[in-house]
Amino acid sequence: AQSVTQLDSQVPVFEEAPVELRCNYSSSVSVYLFWYVQYPNQGLQLLLKYLSGSTLVKGINGFEAEFNKSQTSFHLRKPSVHISDTAEYFCAVSRSGGSNYKLTFGKGTLLTVNP
Amino acid sequence: NAGVTQTPKFQVLKTGQSMTLQCAQDMNHNSMYWYRQDPGMGLRLIYYSASEGTTDKGEVPNGYNVSRLNKREFSLRLESAAPSQTSVYFCASSEAVGTSGGFNEQFFGPGTRLTVL
């Protein structure tokens, strides 16, 4: 089974500042990793994903994440945030290959960008 | 192409009442899922359907039933609602690929906000 820990439940930052949202996972098998974003009163939208290959993956809206297998981490970063980035961010994991039907989500990190 | 649609958007029930949440997808996906989202808990899987004709329990199935009506539709039923089932419910679908290199990108509906009094 897989599990995901998002280390910060809330992250307040000022506009144009850099941000890092932390995610650690646990799994006994190879995994795929995802970051989803949920804007207020909306459903979840895929931000980026790691399947294989380059450990630095780029997503929408200027976000990127780095897969670190030795530290079992998949932290999300953005060099300069905007007010519109205010949302809840979820890290998720599924096993790679085989019957990879199920996603396991972290509890979420609320990013609040202040002017 | 509407993606994943859910009805209703909002619902208020009294304890003991029953209701069915509807979900449909037009992406020809094989797999469909029901999650509930509670503050500080993230998303938890209630039930999923890997393919038409199959359903399986997820992390929190108690108090719920599901029906995979056809490839497009996957409904969630609360037979006797309880206040603990107050939550936001999300349906999702994905093209479950079982071969090496495949992945499980899930596409989510807008959610149903349910309150049980």
Descriptive terms for the model:
heterodimer; A: six-stranded mixed β-sheet; 0% helix; B: 117 residues; mainly beta; four-stranded antiparallel β-sheet
| Count of β-strands of chain A | 12
What's the main sheet of chain B like? 7 strands, mixed
Low-confidence stretches of chain B: none
Which percent bin holds the helix content of chain A? under 10%
Residue stretches of chain A low in confidence (pLDDT < 50, at least 5 long) are none
Strand % of chain B is over 45%
**Order of secondary-structure elements of chain A:** EEEEEEEEEEEE
Total number of helices of chain A: 0
Task: Calculate the mean pLDDT score of chain B and round it.
Answer: 90
The radius of gyration of chain B is 14 Å
Q: Write down the overall geometry of chain A.
A: globular
N-to-C SSE series of chain B? Answer: EEEEEEEEEEE
Task: Give a short synopsis of this structure.
The complex is a heterodimer of chains A (115) and B (117). Chain A is mostly beta strands and 115 residues long.
What does this structure look like?
The complex is a heterodimer of chains A (115) and B (117). In chain A, 0% of the residues lie in helices and 54% in strands. Chain A has 115 residues and is mainly beta. In chain A, the strands form 3 sheets. In chain A, strands 2, 5, 6, 10, 11 and 12 form a 6-stranded mixed beta sheet that branches. A 4-stranded antiparallel beta sheet of chain A has the order 3-9-8-7, with no helix packed on it. In chain A, strands 1-4 form a two-stranded antiparallel ribbon. The model of chain A has no long low-confidence stretch (mean pLDDT 92). With 117 residues, chain B is mostly beta strands. In chain B, 0% of the residues lie in helices and 50% in strands. Chain B has strands at 4-7, 10-13, 19-25, 31-38, 42-49, 56-57, 64-68, 74-78, 87-94, 107-108, 112-116. The interface between A and B is medium-sized, with 26 and 30 residues.
